[in-house]
């Protein structure tokens, strides 16, 4: 007769303690361990002076997140030439004042923005395993699905009005310009592909003539958006949405991107190729999380300071 052995109580207790410690670290420390990513990108005309671009993304603000607010306010000390906000500012419909307060010092600088799905809709609890299942099925967001129903609608108009009042340029399926120290910077933006609000046909045609630089901006880095921007000849695309994978495996990296972008490019600077053209792609890991999954592991929250330099 085969003997049966149960798991020793001390082993079970040890596993439980390790798991609890991991959750405590991911939620209590790393999710609030804000970092600044610094990147240099050679995209300016020869002889141009460097430009400093601050990218903030995926704030997912919840009321009362004072440490996050203070950290975002402190970024004004970097004195960027302009700010790019790549969306998902909210994770609480009551947090609009907190968002505008946190970004208040940055609103003193020139800026542009696009929105993400969580600016429009309130979050809901999801089993994290569903992200792995969706990756295996090739389904992400509303792509391939029916429109969202019975969802909480966030007061995104109030954020839009606050940004617009400060002079930030709304790039949702449209173009805009900033004049920075005598340089004409053109922008082409899309509304969020994750919820099928992108309308590339409205902005197609490539970089504008008579400008010193044209940049592309989108919240979720879906391949259809990256392909279109790259095929049209944009030298740099800025995006967010992925949270850098949010829960990563040390020495391995991200398991999912929550879109059809590969995990090798889940955060930071990389390249994208389409129709014989090549663009730089910068994906911010963002500085927040969905309010129902307030954890990060091996993927600290971040903002990015991109120094744009002259092409070689």
What report would you give on this structure?
The protein is of the alpha/beta class. It has 7 helices and 12 strands. Helix 2 packs parallel to helix 3 (96-102). The N and C termini lie far apart (75 Å). Residues 1-5 and 10-21 have low confidence and may be disordered.
Radius of gyration: 20 Å
Low-confidence stretches: 1-5, 10-21
Strand residue percentage: 15-25%
Q: What distance separates the N and C termini?
A: 75 Å
Instruction: Give the overall form.
Output: globular
- Strand order in the sheet with the most strands: 1-12-2-3-4-5
Mean of residue pLDDT values: 90
What is the element string, with H for helices and E for strands?
HEEHEHEHHHEEEEHEEEE
The biggest beta sheet is recorded as: 6 strands, mixed
What kind of assembly state do the chains in view correspond to?
single chain
Using DSSP, what is the number of strands? Answer: 12
Quickly give the structural class: alpha/beta
Topology:
Layout (H helix, E strand, L loop, with lengths): L8 H20 L6 E10 L6 E6 L9 H9 L7 E4 L10 H7 L8 E3 L3 H4 L8 H9 L18 H10 L3 E2 L3 E7 L2 E7 L23 E5 L5 H9 L4 E4 L28 E7 L2 E7 L18 E9 L2
Parallel strand pairs: 1-12, 2-3, 3-4, 4-5, 7-8, 8-9, 9-11
Antiparallel strand pairs: 2-12, 6-7, 10-11
Overview in brief:
This protein is α/β, with parallel strands linked by helices. It has 7 helices and 12 strands.
Question: What are the main properties of this structure?
Answer:
alpha/beta; six-stranded mixed β-sheet; disordered N terminus; 22% helix; 312 residues
């Amino acid at each position: 007769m085969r003997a049966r052995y149960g798991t020793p109580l001390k082993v079970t207790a040890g596993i439980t303690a390790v798991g609890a410690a991991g959750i405590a670290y991911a939620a209590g420390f790393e999710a609030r361990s804000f970092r600044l990513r610094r990147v240099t990108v050679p995209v300016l005309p020869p002889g141009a002076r460097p430009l400093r671009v601050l990218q903030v993304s995926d704030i997912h603000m919840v009321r009362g997140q004072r440490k996050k607010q203070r950290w975002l306010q402190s970024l004004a000390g970097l004195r960027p030439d302009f700010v790019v906000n790549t969306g998902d500012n909210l994770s609480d419909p009551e947090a609009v004042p907190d968002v505008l307060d946190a970004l208040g010092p940055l609103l003193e600088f020139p800026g542009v923005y696009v929105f993400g799905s969580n600016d429009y809709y309130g979050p809901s609890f999801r089993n994290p395993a569903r992200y792995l299942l969706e990756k295996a099925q090739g389904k992400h967001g509303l792509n391939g699905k029916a429109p969202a129903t019975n969802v909480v609608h966030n007061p995104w108009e109030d954020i839009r009005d606050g940004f617009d009042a400060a002079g930030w340029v709304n790039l949702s399926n449209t173009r805009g310009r900033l004049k920075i120290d005598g340089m004409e910077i053109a922008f082409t933006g899309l509304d969020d592909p994750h919820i099928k609000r992108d309308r590339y046909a409205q902005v197609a045609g490539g970089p504008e003539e008579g400008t010193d630089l044209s940049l592309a901006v989108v919240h979720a880095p879906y391949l259809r958006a990256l392909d279109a921007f790259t095929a049209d000849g944009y030298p740099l695309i800025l995006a967010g949405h992925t949270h850098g994978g949010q829960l990563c495996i040390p020495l391995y990296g991200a398991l999912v991107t929550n879109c059809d972008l590969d995990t090798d490019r889940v955060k930071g600077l990389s390249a994208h190729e389409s129709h014989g053209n090549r663009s730089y792609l910068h994906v911010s890991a963002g500085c927040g999380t969905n309010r129902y999954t307030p954890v990060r592991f091996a993927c600290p929250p971040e903002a990015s300071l991109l120094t744009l330099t002259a092409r070689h």
